[in-house]
Specification:
alpha/beta, TIM Barrel, two-stranded antiparallel sheet, 14 helices, 14 strands, 39% helix, globular
Length: 395
């Protein structure tokens, strides 16, 4: 049963033009004064979601994006700030990219945020998908096997640091601690200071849904986010079934959809046709950004090349927003229509307790705020009422 609602904001500034006829992605280059406006935008979104009863505001860690698409480099610093200006909403790291951190620095910073926000910061991790980010920080991404191997070792270290009063680790990438003399003794173990004081809830994007990846998540009790950020929108039933099967092999019997968040792009309008008309430019801008990174399924090399060429982009046979609506990754139309679609998803995945809704890279602040408010007022009540305490004759 769907009980909670969140939204992911990857960190884009308001762009002056959007869509296939707008500035090519690689030609966008904004001043620092423009790029830092993302932080006021984050404040506005977080305050709106907090006031309207959302449960989690997710953000994404990214670096060096002069194009203005994903401009929040430190989620944990931002989480502490946002918890100072909101009252209830939790702040989700969607996601800290572990290969761009030393694992113990990431563990320390999360623990500090956990303490300073009273447990309102949700830990999330990912492997990364921008070569410009990961490789600049000195970690592999072009070598996918090395990237996964590094990530898995880092997560082993982080969970040791969270859960053990003192620990050591010897692996391919890290020896912790090094065997060095320290104040009269030989260093053999180390303690994370501080450690989290609240239960650590860890989330990771489910992208390829490989057997190795799913088993690693189950081993550590990491929960999964399908759609949004690194993964294409919507949820394939095969992925949800594979998730359930792997969890069972690790001794956890879950209802279908359990320990998952599924993300959808949503847009409320008086008709689906009006919604599509309003959103087409956001959909197209999102494809210009993410298509060359491999997150638009089924694109050929020729289509990916055309995304950066205004002369060819309209004739390349690229996916349409109508197709995305038909496939179910975009939910568009009246509040009643979107509620009905989400009720069907709830019936399909009875273990699903949380969904993310939102709009893609490029959507202006005023549209994001308007849509979040309308969804909260006209869609969420149908689901929140499912979990309300029953009224008895004595009340």
């Amino acid at each position: 049963m769907i009980k909670r609602f969140g939204s992911l904001f990857a960190g884009h500034i308001d762009l002056p033009d959007m869509g296939f006829d707008a500035t090519p992605a690689n030609e966008r280059f904004y001043s620092n004064d423009k790029l830092v406006t993302v932080f006021d935008k984050v404040d506005a979104i977080a305050k709106t979601m907090d006031a309207k009863g959302y449960d989690t505001f997710w953000m994404a860690e990214h670096h060096f994006q002069r194009e203005g698409y994903e401009c929040i480099p430190n989620l944990l610093m931002e989480a502490v700030h946002l918890c100072h200006i909101t009252k209830n909403i939790r702040i989700g790291c969607g996601f800290n990219i572990a290969p761009m951190w030393h694992p113990l620095r990431l563990a320390e910073d999360y623990a500090t945020a956990d303490i300073l926000t009273g447990g309102r910061t949700i830990f999330g991790v990912g492997r990364g998908y921008h070569t410009r980010e990961v490789e600049v920080f000195g970690s592999p991404l072009l070598d996918g096997d090395a990237n996964r191997e590094l990530f898995e070792e880092q997560m082993d270290i982080i969970f040791k640091a969270f859960n053990e009063e003192s620990f050591s680790h010897q692996g391919k990438y890290y020896t912790i601690p090094p065997s060095v003399p320290y104040r009269g003794y030989q260093l053999e173990e180390i303690t994370l200071v501080p450690r989290p004081v609240n239960p650590v809830e860890c989330w990771q994007p489910v992208v390829s849904a490989s057997e190795r990846g799913l088993n690693f998540m189950a081993k550590h009790g990491i929960k999964g986010v399908i759609g949004g950020g690194a993964a294409a929108g919507g949820a394939a039933s095969s992925v949800v079934l594979a998730w359930q099967d792997v969890q069972a092999k690790h001794g956890r019997e879950l209802e279908l959809g359990g320990d998952l968040i599924i993300s959808f792009s949503t847009y409320i309008a008086e008709t689906p046709e009006r919604a599509i008309e309003d959103c087409r430019k956001y959909f197209q801008e999102n494809m210009k950004m993410f298509g060359p990174l491999g997150f638009v399924r089924g694109l050929t090399d020729e289509q990916i090349s055309a995304l950066g060429d205004p002369k060819r982009i309209h004739s390349a046979g690229l996916p349409t927003l109508e197709q995305a609506v038909e496939e179910g990754s975009w939910l568009m139309g009246t509040p009643e229509m979107i509620t009905e679609k989400l009720m069907m998803i709830q019936d399909q995945y009875p273990g699903l307790e949380e969904i993310n809704i939102g709009l893609p890279v490029g959507t202006p602040q005023n549209v994001l705020i308007e849509q979040l408010e309308q969804f909260a007022e006209e869609v969420m009540p149908a689901f929140k009422s499912q979990t309300a305490e029953p009224v008895t004759a004595d009340d």
